[in-house]
Write a structure and sequence with these properties.
Length: about 400
């Protein structure tokens, strides 16, 4: 048989789906697993959005659209995202695709050349697709560390040392997956100063911009001199419980035409009827009210899970400022049970406590000075949060050395 390419063999993946497959296999065998592993709202898509999509289907909106997306949606995105960030956005700067994830690839392919040693800086821990797509597209991935000791920000001096004459793109994510941290104004300004001085692109993953529990959302694109060099990437998936609808978008005046070409080459266009659902999400008051209620529910769950995690022997969890992720430090938990590391603890929790979580190695290289961590998605019911954390507490108490 012919061999597959080395590029494919070495392609990274999103480990949440790998663990989810483990969970589903156990459930199929009759095991009762409480899962904190997948980053997906457990709410139904608001009725206003579903009705808009149904109406679009019934009126024949089922063919190809322009690769950049229908104009009505791009106008709605420009107005909504511009208002959130306090900037003016031209609809011509907006490109829609099948989810926001594809713009990681589009951006790397547009700003770096294969095999030229061009470097892409990305957060560690961070969304694993950043590293995977930099590698598979022939760029050099360069991690910069997100530190619990800095409330899940980074050390600017260390960050600056990692910038070289080969750096082409800086990826940032705020609010962050997996930590739930939010980059401070100081951190954003530090990156902005470097990007302007070195003439670099910044990919700002802002998919959780509306799931913020403290303060006001800050985008690096709002800093003077940054809008033209920032690719704002976001979508409706998380805010409006539309993960399976696959509607994401990127905003950048200079790169919009190039992103459109990539969409044409790869996906042709985003789903026609779903684009009308996204218009309703961004423009209808009822949809916004439903989204606000979801965020309030996530905040309540945040408070519950942090309290419960901090009651578990050896767990220490900072309060996430956004997203629906908690990232407790479990260094002490490993020590007092004699468990090797967070990944071994994750496996034991799945197999013995029947609780599914992710470990820090699913989001990059473990930072030795920061210890061991697990990631919990609290996009699940309060009942599951209480039951799951209680099962972990009982496991820990049973296994204390």
């Amino acid at each position: 048989m012919p061999e597959v390419s080395n590029r494919t063999k070495n392609l990274g993946t999103e480990n949440a789906f790998v663990v989810l497959a483990e969970v589903n296999k156990k459930k199929a065998l009759g095991e009762n697993i409480i899962s904190f592993c997948i980053g997906q709202p457990d709410f139904d898509t608001p009725e206003t959005i579903k009705n808009a999509a149904k109406k679009a289907i019934d009126s024949g909106k089922s063919g190809y659209t322009s690769s950049c997306g229908i104009l009505e949606l791009r106008k709605a995105i420009a107005e909504s995202e511009g208002k959130l960030r306090g900037i003016e956005i031209n609809p011509e700067s907006v490109v829609v695709d099948s989810g926001a994830k594809s713009f990681i690839t589009h951006t790397i392919m547009t700003t770096t050349d294969f095999g030229k040693g061009h470097e892409v800086m990305y957060p560690n821990p961070g969304y694993p697709i950043y590293h995977a797509q930099a590698t598979v597209n022939g760029a050099v991935p360069v991690p910069y560390n997100i530190l619990e000791s800095k409330n899940f920000n980074f050390d600017l001096n260390e960050f600056e040392k990692r910038v070289s004459d080969k750096t082409k793109l800086i990826i940032i994510n705020s609010p962050q997956n997996p930590t739930g941290g939010v980059l401070t104004k100081e951190s954003l300004k530090g990156i902005a100063d470097i990007a302007i001085d070195k003439d670099l692109w910044v990919y700002s993953d802002e998919i959780y911009s509306n799931i913020l529990f403290e303060g006001k959302f800050e985008s690096i694109a709002s800093i003077k001199g940054m809008q033209e060099r920032t690719i704002i990437a976001t979508g409706v998936s998380k805010t409006f419980a539309m993960t399976g609808w696959r509607i994401g978008y990127a905003i950048n005046e200079k790169l919009a035409e190039h992103f459109t070409t990539w969409v044409t080459n790869i996906n042709a266009c985003a789903c026609h009827s779903n684009q009308y659902g996204a218009i309703a999400a961004l423009t209808e008051k009822n949809a916004k009210n439903d989204a606000d209620k979801m965020t309030e529910s996530f905040k309540k769950r945040r408070d519950i899970i942090v309290e419960k995690l901090n009651e578990i022997p050896g767990f220490n969890c900072l309060k996430p400022l956004g997203t629906f992720y908690a990232y407790p430090n479990v260094t002490k938990a490993c020590e007092i049970t004699g468990i090797k590391d967070s990944e071994e603890l994750r496996k034991k929790l799945l197999n013995e406590a029947k609780v599914a979580v992710l470990s820090d190695i699913h989001f990059g290289e473990r930072i030795k000075t920061e210890g061991e961590h697990l990631r919990f998605s609290f996009a699940t019911s309060e009942e599951n949060i209480i039951k799951g954390t209680q099962a972990i507490k009982e496991f820990m108490e049973k296994n204390l050395k």
